[in-house]
Design brief:
Keywords: Membrane, Transmembrane, Transmembrane helix
Organism: Pseudomonas weihenstephanensis
InterPro entries: FA_desaturase_dom
Protein name: Fatty acid desaturase
Largest sheet: none
Strand content: under 5%
Length: 351
């Protein structure tokens, strides 16, 4: 007889499972009612493709207007940051195969466009595996996607760096590994995750920062600097890339990671318990961040209960879904998570 002690995985109570099923059923029914009321919602592939076409065309248009000097750089950056937030929502839906499920060419073309317009992120095909695992084991130690967005890390310089520049954070984290073997392994992993587009994306960004810091330092010290014709041409291309695609994505990614990392609980979440995985964050002061991640904090919790609804339908069901979630005890605007490093368990000082 085997007397070895085994660590048992916590099991959802009947009440909790009933609550989860009830939330899913009510929100699903509401979204189905909306589909029946608005026939246009039945054309999901067309809507997804149209949003993608609009977003990509918008980025090309603003980029052209900026290059021709017809709009200022800051306006191009803000518009494209908004457009890439739409593209992120499309990618998230595509990862769940919500568009062109039976038409691989159209599906993969949309995935490719998502990657080209957001090159600082790993390939969406690679992210699919991580994201599916995130849904299965959200908030647990194996939830790599949550860790990447800083969930579970205490607030400080390290977490802020991770939010602002994931590439530098990854390299610093690798170099701080205890052994040379680990340093090399983690560095290769960071490079592989970012290859090839991320390396070009971050490389342009660092050249941009370095060049303009150098010219600024020269002007401060009174040193004349005259770039060569090749350098001037290269920097004109890099400057354009920063305004059109890099800076917009840095703004979007920071806002998304800031919101996402705080709505997800991490570290003491019961496995498969959707009631503990996320909260709703829709306080008014979050709107500057929500603006550049398409209201993610207000609607992502819905997605953990109902996966099959595309992003625009989550926006339409939000008011109803929030009532259902609140009745079931899902948390709203739990800002104590900042102090608890995303732990679900509240302390006396939080209440």
């Amino acid at each position: 007889m085997n007397t070895t002690n085994k660590v048992s995985t916590p099991i959802l109570s009947k009440k909790e499972q009933t609550q989860i099923n009830d939330i899913t059923q009510k929100i699903t029914q509401h979204s189905n009612d909306l589909r029946a009321r608005y026939k246009l919602l039945g054309y999901q592939n067309v809507i997804g493709a149209s949003v993608m076409a609009f977003s990509v065309a918008g980025m090309v248009t603003t980029g052209t207007l900026y290059v021709k000097g017809l709009i200022p750089g800051w306006l191009c950056i803000l518009i494209n940051a908004l457009l890439t937030s739409l593209i992120h929502e499309l990618e998230h839906d595509l990862i769940h195969r919500l568009y062109f499920r039976k038409q691989p060419f159209a599906h993969n073309l949309m995935m490719l466009l998502c990657w080209i317009t957001r090159p600082g992120m790993p390939s969406p095909w690679l992210r699919r595996e991580l994201h599916f695992h995130h849904h299965k084991e959200s908030g647990t130690d194996t939830d790599v996607e949550a860790w990447i967005t800083t969930s579970g890390s205490p607030w400080g310089a390290k977490r802020f760096l991770k939010l602002v520049d994931g590439f530098i954070f990854g390299i610093v984290n690798a170099l701080c590994a205890p052994t040379w073997r680990e340093k090399i392994r983690l560095t290769i992993k960071v490079l592989r995750l970012n290859a090839p587009m991320g390396l070009l994306y971050w490389g342009c960004w660092y050249v941009f920062l370095g060049y303009h810091f150098y010219t600024w330092a020269c002007s401060i010290m009174g040193v004349a600097y005259q770039p060569s014709s090749i350098t001037a041409l290269l920097m004109s291309v890099i400057n354009g890339a920063v305004v059109i695609i890099i800076a917009p994505n840095i703004i979007r990614q920071f806002c998304l990671f800031f919101i996402s990392s705080n709505i997800h609980y991490y570290g003491d979440v019961m496995p498969r318990n959707a009631l503990q995985q996320t909260q709703v964050m829709n306080h008014w002061w979050l709107w500057p961040f929500q603006l550049f991640c398409f209201n993610f904090g207000s609607t992502h919790c819905i997605h953990h209960f109902v996966v099959k609804d595309p992003f625009y339908l989550r926006q339409m069901t939000a008011a109803f879904a929030h009532k259902v979630l609140a009745e079931a005890g899902v948390r709203f605007n739990d800002f104590g998570t900042y102090k608890r490093a995303n732990r679900y368990t509240q302390t006396q000082t939080d209440t």
